[in-house]
Known about the structure:
Oxidized Rhodanese, domain 1; alpha/beta; Thiosulfate sulfurtransferase GlpE; Rhodanese-like_dom_sf; transferase; Thiosulf_sulfurTrfase; thiosulfate-cyanide sulfurtransferase activity; 5-stranded parallel beta sheet
Amino acid sequence: MTSFQRISVIQASELLEKQAAKVLDIRDPQSFSQGHIPGSLPLNNDNVQQILDETEEDETVIVVCYHGISSQQAAQYLVEQGLNQVYSLDGGYQAWGQAFG
């Protein structure tokens, strides 16, 4: 994969039910602490190298932000760092919250 792909909240939920994806949340720490997709990990400048080191290149990764815009840039960055299965969550955490409360 030379570019990230986009994924809907329904598709993401299906992957998570199968425990087939790692979710990385790029929102600020306060927003993350107030609510996040179960099992997701915060991703920021301080831990990005650690996350990359702990992620297999073919592992499925879903990047989440507030509305699905900023996650696209972060997803592309992860692809450029060698990850092959990277998705940006369409609509971000806002869409996830609307779909799943």
